[in-house]
Specification:
Number of helices: 12
Oligomer: single chain
Strand content: under 5%
Helix content: 55-70%
Distance between the termini: 49 Å
Structural class: mainly alpha
Shape: globular
Length: 271
């Protein structure tokens, strides 16, 4: 049991400052938007005192460990960074596809399946986005938390988990689906009998995903922190709005989701 828990938590350790996204988009914030974010509709912060303490801990962890690693990653040659980013995003499609189906979007599931097949084979294990060059459209990632939301389940209270970062009770529950059969990559690498797949490979892929995300959003988080009167409240608002927009598959509102290449991070633009 402890071993399984370690497998789950270690990869997410890299995502300590994550707001549940992974991409190489950029986040910019100006002073005019700051008020709009903090005035936006908020879910209940039932554990705010504890959440703020956990948030401070996660910030310290990010500045001491995660951010320095991300800066080093950015010094790698661009082809290596791009190939790594493409590969981890290709793996994430394994979770997106079943959630497309669960949300009744069979057409998108078929397209994502085709993208996965092409990029995994012709694209050298996903390091090259051949499917995009072939005209297969890119769709935003889906997860089980989004599916629960699409089914009408409310977010519940906002929580900041130690190491894991911002979440909600619904999204936390959705995350457990990954380790009880909902993530084919987890099933194959951790529970499979394939000699070429292992727990270490799974952990490594998740760690790379987190590093890639953090490396491509260094300025984004710095801008958000510098332009926020209350950084904790700004991250909470950004996270909850992002999740709401993803559930609605709506790219309009206080936050406009802009996908750069195949990214799924948000850029806050003044409108």
């Amino acid at each position: 049991m402890f071993r399984k828990l370690a497998i789950i938590l270690f990869p997410i350790f890299i995502l300590a400052f994550n707001v549940n996204a992974s991409s190489d988009g950029e986040l910019t914030l100006n002073t005019n938007e700051k008020k709009d974010i903090n005035k936006s509709k908020e879910i209940k912060d039932c554990f705010e005192k504890l959440n703020r303490a956990t948030f401070a801990f996660n910030q310290g962890l990010d500045k001491a460990i995660i951010k320095p690693i991300a800066k080093g990653y950015r010094n790698l040659p661009d082809p290596i960074q791009r190939g790594t980013s493409n590969a981890v995003k290709n793996l994430s499609t394994l979770i997106t596809i079943p959630n497309n189906v669960l949300q009744g979007d069979v057409k998108t599931a078929i397209i994502n399946t085709a993208r996965l097949a092409v990029n995994t084979t012709v694209g050298l294990l996903g390091t090259i986005d051949v499917a995009n060059k072939m005209g297969f459209p890119k769709y935003e990632k889906e997860d089980y938390g989004q599916t629960l939301g699409a089914w009408g389940i409310g977010p519940g209270c906002y929580v900041v988990l130690p190491v894991l970062g911002p979440s909600t009770l619904r999204d936390t529950a959705g995350s457990f689906a990954n380790v009880i059969g909902g993530d084919p990559w987890y099933n194959a690498s951790v529970h499979g009998n394939n000699e070429f797949l292992s727990e270490g490979l799974y952990i490594g892929s998740k760690a790379l995903s987190g590093i890639d995300f953090r490396a491509n959003n260094i300025e984004s988080f710095d801008n958000l922190e510098q332009n926020s009167i209350d950084f904790y409240a700004s991250v909470r608002s950004l996270y909850t709005q992002d999740r709401e927009n993803k559930i609605k598959n709506n790219q309009r509102g206080n936050i406009e989701v802009l996908y750069k290449d195949e990214e799924d991070w948000e850029e806050i633009d003044s409108k």
